[in-house]
Specification:
The chain is an alpha/beta fold. It is 45% helix and 16% strand.
Length: 284
Amino acid sequence: PFLERLERGPILADGGMGTMIYARGVTYERCYDELNLTDPDLVQSIHRDYIRAGAELIETNTFGANRYKLAAYGLEDRVRDVNFRAVKIAREAREECGEAVFLAGAMGPLGEALTPLGTLAVEDARAAFREQADALLEAGADLFVLETFGDLSELQEAVRAVREACDLPIVAQVSLTEDGRMLTGEGPADVARVLAGHRVEVIGVNCGVGPQSTLDAIREMAIPLFAKLSAMPNAGAPSRREGRYVYFSTPEYFAEYARRFVDAGVALLGGCCGTTPQHIAAMR
């Protein structure tokens, strides 16, 4: 159903989850993924706000819900609980709003560098991704969004893990530096070619320094390939003001770029850090 819907026209996704959690008074020192267990009402309220703003796809609050990132909070043995509950929270939000939105299981980097850049074995990385994917799948995710990857090798292991678990659609997104390349050196066209080789259904860019740089990268990705394109940029680069992080790209600015992204062939668009339901409503 997701891929069929994508063929009919662009899909609008939600915006930043961490941004909204932070805005509601939860400090960065907390484990945001654990809130699925300790404060599900807060997480569900954010999902509802995005659905009511017009998002047709919402991502689970599981960006860092893998065993390596959860280990920093002593939660490495609760991977299934955190991810399973996240999907249930999103499903409950969808049911309460009564809207036909897609639920995407969100997966981010492990927080440990793979060999040869680091010490994490490729097999262990794939096993960690598979563990998270299995939990999201078991709870009923409609598709997977793999996002904010700076290491193309790590992203490929995440893709392989999801493919081993199921045949649901994959949205694979990389995060680029200010010079428009991944931390491991690959440019947008390189990323598109590699991910197309894995038959990833949607390929794109998220996070980064703002809509314009994301649009530039997307245009480079639009080489002949079967995959659709996605764009979920940050609301510009953050600035620290009076002890809080502030993003300055307005909803109106994102509305303007929503049109530009669609004109560039983007099929799935939304927002990342700094974006809010107001940004999504403007894009809608």
